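Hello again, I could really use a second opinion on something today. My current little project is about how a certain protein chain folds up. You're getting the sequence in one-letter code plus the fold written as tokens. Here's the protein in full, and shout if anything looks odd to you:
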Amino acid sequence: MAKKDKQVLPPSGAGLVRYFEDETKGPKLSPEQVVIMTVVLAVFCIALRFTYS
């Protein structure tokens, strides 16, 4: 009789591609920095709109 305690696991990765294995060049920004820069840009654009209307 065969033993039933041996389990077969799926292969690691399962055909998925990992794109971020290597470090890339460029600025490293945190999510908070991106949100702050977006808010500053939006305020600047709104200020320009009211200045030249």
